[in-house]
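Thread: Phosphatase, structure

OP (GT): Posting the sequence first so everyone is looking at the same thing. Length is 235 residues per the record. Can we get the structure tokens written out before standup tomorrow? I want them in the notebook alongside the other entries.
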Amino acid sequence: MTPPRAIVFTDWDGTVTLQDSNDLLTDNLGMGHPQRMALNDRILDGSLSFRDAFALMLGSVAANGHSLPHCIEYLLQNVKLDPGFSDTIEWCVANDIPLIVVSSGMDVIIETLLKKLLRPQLHPFIQVYSNHVESPNSAGSWNIVYRDDSSFGHDKNQSIQHAAALYYPDPATRGTLFYCGDGVSDVSAARSCDLLFAKQGHDLVDICKRDGINYLEFASFHDILTQIQQELKVS
């Protein structure tokens, strides 16, 4: 098999989707926006890990008595895709470029939203690396099960390296690695990619500026697709 000329890795919540599923759940069914933002500030100043803060946010949703099926139904009614994402995945399929979701969210939620929001023909071409859920079908309590032991709960750098090694067993054949993200959990991915896209007006832009990480801002996947086409010189 000929190695692909590139791989597009992307965050899911707030990047592929216009609304962050976990923020929506926390703000409307859990602890509420003010408390979530207080935890977010602690993540940004380093006094609380993303892993621990995220568990508190999602735990507040379950603690308020909202089952996972109810949460998923709420998200199906309120979450929409970035308007350029469908065009991007179709272009990737046409050009034999893998598109891989690398998310701090939960697999059952991502897969359910993909089935609703994307044409069925495109589902097989999207791979997902994410966290899991314990007791996902229970009407009672449920909780996130992290992918690894990192401070993020899912070290996206590790997942990117794993996927890249599968496509490029010979490092000499390695193509361009793109990553698209918007938040704190995407910082680790910056170590793995050749070009980082950071969403305008979100935490990742501020972190990149603070830490001297090279990035390109994007407003939608239309911007990302245009830039990838320019980088690869493929229309």
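GT: Both are above now. Quick notes for whoever picks this up: The first strand starts at residue 6 and ends at 10. The two ends are 23 Å apart (CA to CA).
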